[in-house]
Amino acid sequence: MKPTFIRLHCGQDYERNPRIKKGQQYCNARKCQNERILLWKRKKYATSEDYREQCRQWQIDWWKKRPVDQYQKEYRDKNSAYVMRNCELL
Ligand SMILES: [Zn+2]
């Protein structure tokens, strides 16, 4: 008979779900699920060209939503001393 409990990555003993054939390693805690997803993404990123392309697209969309020059303008507005120094350097 197989053991009923398996030791999870976070050190918890977890009752094996007989319907899941592959070794289950993560409990339902938010922290563990996040880690599982992160690992999945890393693996996917390393192995899938399509996924890397998708990530680039997300990044581009993010930049479009929050352009860099707008961020720099906000920074300059809040830090006038920084702006003065940059002007002196020119
Ligand atoms: Zn866990």
Characterise this structure.
The protein is mainly α and 90 residues long. It has one domain (26-89). Helices cover 62% and strands 7% of the residues. It contains 4 helices and 2 strands, in the order E-E-H-H-H-H. It has helices spanning 30-47, 49-65, 68-78, 80-89; strands at 5-7, 13-15. A two-stranded antiparallel ribbon has the order 1-2. Strand 1 (5-7) and strand 2 form a beta hairpin. Helix 1 (30-47) packs across helix 2 (49-65). The longest helix has 18 residues, at 30-47. It is elongated, with a radius of gyration of 24 Å. The mean pLDDT is 81. Zinc ion (ZN) binds next to loops.
Number of helices: 4
Radius of gyration, CA atoms, in whole angstroms: 24 Å
Give every kind of bound small molecule, once each: zinc ion
Question: How confident is the prediction overall: mean pLDDT?
Answer: 81
Helix content: 55-70%
- In the sheet with the most strands, the strands line up as 1-2
Give the helix/strand class: mainly alpha
Strand content: 5-15%
What is this structure's SSE topology?
Blueprint: E1 5-7, E2 13-15, H1 30-47, H2 49-65, H3 68-78, H4 80-89
Antiparallel strand pairs: 1-2
Helix pairs in contact: 1-2
The protein binds zinc ion.
Short recap of the structure:
By secondary structure, the chain is mainly α.
